[in-house]
From TrEMBL:
Highest rank taxon of the organism: Bacteria
Chain segments annotated as transmembrane: 12-34, 54-78
Assigned keywords, A-Z: Membrane, Transmembrane, Transmembrane helix
Protein name: Uncharacterized protein
UniProt organism field: Paenibacillus curdlanolyticus YK9
Region (Disordered): 87-109
Keyword check for Transmembrane helix: yes
Amino acid sequence: MKQGGEELNRIVFYLITSVACLLVSAFFIIYMYWDASQPKVGPVGDGNPYPSFMQMLPIWSALFVGATQSPRAIYLYVKQRWREKRQEQGQEQGQEQEQEQEQEGKLRG
């Protein structure tokens, strides 16, 4: 069984990766359309200024992956934090019960 810290590190990495997919792909989409709108002269300026479907496919795919995996990563992060909080509360309650039992034992003994 994995420890809570290792699991949380994996989930945080998952969250950072999905956000990076969103940000990087959004940056490249904006950059490609900005570059296409710049006037070009000479042989470079001939042809279609906008990127083709095949050029945009990896960027749109990364955007789709980031958009679909971000809610899942957030859900897993919140769920893991909730589990850790419950375990901490359970340990605190267990320690309190042990202390109470020790005090009862001292009073009886």
